[in-house]
C-alpha cells in the first residue's frame, strides 16, 4: 500500500516536473527510423540501425555550448526470464538458486551524445530507466528484502546479455549533423530477438530531462528456416507426424538403395 | 557448408552433422543397435541445446530402426504379438516420459538428469559388456554368442495374466512385458534413445526370448515408441529439429550399410568389447562435465525452461 502511494506520488511529481519543463522549453523533438522492420534470415550477422531526429526551436546559445544531450535506445520485447546459478552439490555442479524477472527487455542498445554520467544525475536516469544498470527488470521479490535490480542474479542477467551483445551502450554514437538534425547509430547483435522493439529517444538540456519520443520497430524471422519454425510452433502435432513420416521414408529408402538381404 | 537449424537455432556445418550420422550409423550397423545413445550425447557435445538433442535423437532413431526392422520382417524374425504388448507399455511410458521431461525442464534440472541418466546407464551397460566380452575372449570362444542362462527369475514366470507368444516360444505373464515396454518408453522420451541397449538384455535375460527374434522385435517396438515420443515432443515442447534429424538420417542410412559389412568380419566378442569401450568413453566424457568447474555459473532461460 505504502509502495503504491509512493509510486503514485512519484508519477504526480514526474508529471508536474514534465509540465514545468514543457512550459519553459519551446524545443520540439521528433525521430524517424531508417526502416520500420528488420528481417532476420539464416545468415543475419547483426545490423546497423540509423535513427534520425530533429530538434527545433532550440536555444542557439545552449546548442553551441553543447548543452543539449540526446540518448537513443532500442528496447527489445520485454519477456519473463529465469536466471539460475550452479552450485556444487556432492561433487556435481547443479542448478541451485534462481530468480525470475518478469519484464527484462530481451535486448537493449543505447547510443548517446556523451557518457551517461555526464548527461544527467543518476537519480534521473534511474527514474527514467535509462542505461543497462537502470533497466527495469521486473524483479519479483517481496519489497524490502533486497535492493531490487541490484542482486547477483540481476547482475548476472546484465553481464550474460552484455557478453552476447544483447545489452550494449555506446557513447558518442549520437551526433548533430546540423544545428537541428541529429543522427544516432545503433549496432544490433546477430542474436536480435524477434518481436516488437521500441526505439526511444530522450532529450536533455543541461542535465534536465525535457521530453521523450518513441517509434516501434518490428523484427521478424524470414526465409525457409523461419517457415519451419513457425509451422512447428503453430502445428506441433502435424509437424511431429511429418517428422515421423520423413524418418520412415528415409529408413525405407535406405533399405531400397542398399538392398542386401 | 554452414546451415542454420530452425529449431535448435544455431548454425552448424552440414558435413559435420552428416558425418556424425554416418559414424553412428556405421557403428549401429556393425553392432546392431539403434545408435540413439551415441547421437544424443554427440549432439550435446556439438552445442545443440540438450532438449533439442533429445527430441531430435528420438526422431532419428525411427529411420535407423525402420530400416533394420524391414530386414527382420522379411526374415520372419519379429514376434509381432510380443512387439505389440511391448508397444502398449511403451506408449504409456512415452506419455509419462514427456510429462517428466516438461517438468524437469521447467525446474531447470533437465540437463542434469539427462547427463546423469546417460552416465548411469552407459556406465552400467558398458561396464557389464566389457567384463563379459573380455572373459569370453579369455575363454577363447570362437562364436562369442551370448549364452542363454536358465533357472533364475522364476518369479517372473509365476506372475498372473499369462499369454502365449508363439514365435518366441514363450508362455509368460504380460505384466513384465508391459513393464519393460513402459520403462523403455520413459527412457526414450527423457534420453532421446530407442532403448535397444536396455531392451535386448531385458528380453534375453528377464523374459528369455530366443536371441534370434530379440533384435527384430526390439527394433519393431522402438519404431513406435520413438514415433510416439517424437510426436509428443513436437506437440508439447516444440523441440524436434526436422532439418537436423534429416541430415543425421542421411548419414546414418549410408553409414549403417558399411557398418554391417565391417561387423561381419569381426568376431562377436571383439565387437562387443569395442562397443563397450566406446560406450564407456561417452559415459566418462559426460561424467567429467558434471564434476569439472563449469566456468560460467549463471544461465538464463524462459520460465518454461526453454533457452532464450
Explain this structure.
Chain A has helices spanning 2-24, 60-64, 116-119, 122-128, 152-163, 224-234, 236-257; strands at residues 28-33, 37-40, 47-56, 68-75, 81-89, 92-101, 108-112, 167-171, 174-178, 181-188, 195-205, 208-221. With 261 residues, chain A is an alpha+beta fold. Chain A has one domain (28-244): Sandwich (Immunoglobulin-like), CATH 2.60.40.1930. In chain A, 29% of the residues are buried. Chain B has one domain (2-291). Helices cover 70% and strands 6% of the residues of chain B. Chain B has helices at 14-31, 36-45, 50-75, 80-106, 110-139, 174-191, 196-207, 211-236, 242-265, 268-291; strands spanning 2-4, 11-13, 162-165, 170-173, 298-301. Mean pLDDT of chain B is 82; it is low at 142-151. Classes of the chains: A alpha+beta (261), B mainly alpha (308). At the A-B interface, strand 5, strand 6, helix 5, helix 6 and helix 7 of A face helix 3, helix 8, helix 9 and strand 5 of B. Strand 5 (81-89) of chain A pairs antiparallel with strand 5 (298-301) of chain B, so a sheet runs across the interface.
List the helices and strands and how they pair.
The complex is a heterodimer of chains A (261) and B (308).
Chain A: H1 2-24, E1 28-33, E2 37-40, E3 47-56, H2 60-64, E4 68-75, E5 81-89, E6 92-101, E7 108-112, H3 116-119, H4 122-128, H5 152-163, E8 167-171, E9 174-178, E10 181-188, E11 195-205, E12 208-221, H6 224-234, H7 236-257
Helix pairs in contact in A: 6-7
Chain B: E1 2-4, E2 11-13, H1 14-31, H2 36-45, H3 50-75, H4 80-106, H5 110-139, E3 162-165, E4 170-173, H6 174-191, H7 196-207, H8 211-236, H9 242-265, H10 268-291, E5 298-301
Antiparallel strand pairs in B: 1-2, 3-4
Helix pairs in contact in B: 1-9, 2-3, 3-6, 3-8, 3-9, 4-6, 4-8, 5-10, 6-7, 6-8, 7-8
Amino acid at each position: 500500500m505504502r509502495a503504491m502511494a509512493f509510486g503514485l506520488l512519484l508519477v504526480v511529481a514526474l508529471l508536474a516536473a514534465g509540465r514545468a519543463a514543457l512550459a519553459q522549453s519551446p524545443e520540439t523533438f521528433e525521430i524517424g527510423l531508417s526502416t520500420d522492420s528488420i528481417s532476420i534470415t539464416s545468415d543475419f550477422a547483426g545490423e546497423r540501425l540509423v535513427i534520425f531526429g530533429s530538434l527545433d526551436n532550440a536555444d542557439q546559445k545552449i546548442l553551441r555550448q553543447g548543452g543539449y544531450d540526446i540518448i537513443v535506445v532500442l528496447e527489445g520485447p520485454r519477456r519473463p526470464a529465469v536466471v539460475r546459478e550452479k552450485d556444487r552439490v556432492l561433487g556435481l555442479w547443479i542448478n541451485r538458486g534462481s530468480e525470475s524477472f518478469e519484464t527484462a527487455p530481451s535486448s537493449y542498445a543505447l547510443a548517446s551524445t556523451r557518457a551517461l554520467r555526464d548527461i544527467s544525475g543518476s537519480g534521473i536516469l534511474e527514474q527514467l530507466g535509462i542505461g543497462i544498470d537502470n533497466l527495469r527488470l521486473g524483479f519479483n521479490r517481496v519489497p524490502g528484502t533486497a535492493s531490487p535490480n541490484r542482486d547477483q542474479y540481476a547482475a548476472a542477467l546484465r553481464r550474460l546479455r552484455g557478453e552476447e551483445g544483447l545489452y550494449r551502450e555506446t557513447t558518442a554514437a549520437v551526433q548533430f549533423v546540423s544545428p537541428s538534425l541529429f543522427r544516432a547509430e545503433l549496432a544490433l547483435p546477430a542474436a536480435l530477438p524477434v518481436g516488437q522493439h521500441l526505439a526511444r529517444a530522450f532529450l536533455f538540456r543541461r542535465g534536465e530531462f525535457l521530453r521523450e519520443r518513441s517509434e516501434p520497430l518490428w523484427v521478424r524471422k524470414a526465409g525457409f528456416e523461419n517457415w519451419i519454425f513457425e509451422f512447428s510452433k503453430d502445428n506441433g502435432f502435424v509437424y511431429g507426424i511429418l517428422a515421423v513420416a520423413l524418418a520412415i521414408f528415409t529408413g525405407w529408402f535406405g533399405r531400397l538403395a542398399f538392398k542386401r538381404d | 557448408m554452414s546451415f542454420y537449424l530452425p529449431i535448435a537455432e544455431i548454425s552448424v556445418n552440414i558435413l559435420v552433422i552428416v558425418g556424425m550420422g554416418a559414424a553412428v550409423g556405421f557403428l549401429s550397423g556393425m553392432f546392431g543397435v539403434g545408435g540413439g545413445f551415441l547421437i544424443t550425447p554427440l549432439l550435446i557435445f556439438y552445442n545443440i541445446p540438450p532438449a533439442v538433442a533429445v527430441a531430435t535423437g528420438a526422431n532419428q532413431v525411427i529411420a535407423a530402426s525402420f530400416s533394420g526392422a524391414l530386414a527382420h520382417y522379411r526374415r520372419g524374425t519379429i514376434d509381432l504379438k510380443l512387439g505389440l504388448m511391448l508397444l502398449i507399455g511403451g506408449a504409456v511410458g512415452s506419455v509419462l516420459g514427456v510429462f517428466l521431461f516438461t517438468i524437469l525442464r521447467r525446474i531447470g534440472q533437465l540437463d542434469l538428469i539427462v547427463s546423469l541418466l546417460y552416465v548411469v546407464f552407459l556406465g552400467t551397460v558398458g561396464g557389464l559388456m566389457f567384463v563379459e566380452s573380455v572373459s569370453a575372449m579369455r575363454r577363447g570362444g570362437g562364436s562369442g554368442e551370448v549364452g542363454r542362462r536358465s533357472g533364475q527369475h522364476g518369479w517372473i514366470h509365476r506372475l498372473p495374466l499369462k499369454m502365449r507368444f508363439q514365435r518366441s516360444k514363450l508362455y509368460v505373464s504380460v505384466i513384465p512385458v508391459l513393464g519393460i515396454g513402459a520403462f523403455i518408453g520413459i527412457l526414450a522420451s527423457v534420453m532421446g534413445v530407442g532403448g535397444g541397449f536396455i531392451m535386448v538384455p531385458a528380453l534375453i535375460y528377464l523374459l528369455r526370448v530366443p536371441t534370434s527374434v530379440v533384435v527384430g522385435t526390439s527394433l519393431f517396438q522402438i519404431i513406435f515408441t520413438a514415433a510416439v515420443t517424437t510426436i509428443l515432443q513436437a506437440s508439447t515442447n516444440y523441440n524436434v529439429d526436422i532439418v537436423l534429424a534429416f541430415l543425421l538420417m542421411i548419414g546414418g542410412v549410408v553409414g549403417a550399410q558399411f557398418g554391417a559389412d565391417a561387423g561381419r568380419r569381426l568376431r562377436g566378442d571383439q565387437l562387443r568389447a569395442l562397443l563397450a569401450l566406446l560406450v564407456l568413453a561417452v559415459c566418462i566424457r559426460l561424467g567429467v562435465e558434471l564434476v569439472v568447474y563449469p566456468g560460467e555459473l549463471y544461465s538464463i532461460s524462459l520460465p518454461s525452461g526453454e533457452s532464450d
